[in-house]
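#help-structures
NK: newbie question, is this the right format to request a structure? protein is 2EXR domain-containing protein
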Amino acid sequence: MAKPQACTNVDCTDIFPPWVYRWVLVKVQQKLENRMFKNQDILNAASEKRRLAFAESIQRQTRDFDAKERRIWDHARYHFFSKLLDGGVKKARQETVPAYTFERFLELPVELKLQIWSMGARSEPPKFHTILPLSYDIVDPMRKAPLGQPVITGSSRILQERPFKKIPAILQVCHLSRLLSEKVYTRMRCYGKKAVRTWDSEGYFNTLYDDFYFGEHSWESFKILIDVVSQQNTTRQLKTKVQRDMNRLLKIRNLFIDFRILVDAPISIWAEFANLTKITIVTYPLIQFNRDVPRSDEKLAFVKAQKGTLFGNCAAWVRKVVSAALEKVKSKHPEWNVPKVEALVRKLGGDSDGMLVESWTDDLAEYKRADMKVEWCTVSENSIWYERARIRLKSTIAPADIEELMTAFHPHQS
């Protein structure tokens, strides 16, 4: 191993600045660059100083504005409370502009009040809700199944979309408004990012006009469908909370259902939705029927496919075969009214959407006359997609599979 070299004394007088070497001046160009870098540092410092001064001025203006707003609010509130103290509530209501109450509402006939409350309960536009699969559910931590697994004490949950009010205002006015609003709103289990994530969290949903969606997962992933199948295959009563939640969900009138869920699940399930008026079948812009549906974080978007195109023909065929299947269910359940059936295509936000042609005319001849290259949009009814769809429609669920589901989720009935 080599020995380290001995340290030598350093002559400090032999060290020169980088711009001078042996008293030889640097080039003029190097001097200019050095001066330029110094000027840049000065400009950067000045720019940062101006930025901080501007930010401080904005904060000062914001504080002044907030202070003025508070003074205006305090002034208005002081005068309003002065009116309450001097003239009472009635005088304050009369002098407030605009008037915020109709004092003679209680004098109206009962029939007119019923109509007003009924219109108030139906005033909000319909909303779209997603029914969540079991993977989003929260189990009751205090209860265990015979095999030690946690028990889900209710049925399916509904995803809370923001903004969401757990209790609509119309339900909090008076007894009469609540009676009418309960015909529109139904209390159901819910789940949301901002909600209290407990196993008994609930909210009110408009089951009369809102749309509810079963999608992206297999039918065995939805607790409500498992509960319905279990009830159809046993004479015993479901547990109280499960039965209560199931009865609430069965009040839904408008359903969006993935075609794969509809063909895989027992078709008789939908007859349990006694108030069902409309089923919208959801297909995807995919050529292969058995292909897994990709998960999409984009907002749900459904479109009507153009008649005569690949997905337009699929939608028409799906609507026809599902309507025929529901008519067969009607023969076994005469009291059930067959709902209206529609078919839409769900956008996935990827390259597959490029093959989707949105509907712009119901006249097929007009569409064919249009100057468009749509050769790739035609598909034969003998294609693999239709064959696999027919096979799935004719398939049935084995009793052993139903027994397995009942054992897992309703062990007291199996």
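mod (FA): yep, format's fine, and the tokens are attached above. Confidence is low (pLDDT under 50) at residues 144-150, 373-382.
NK: thank you!
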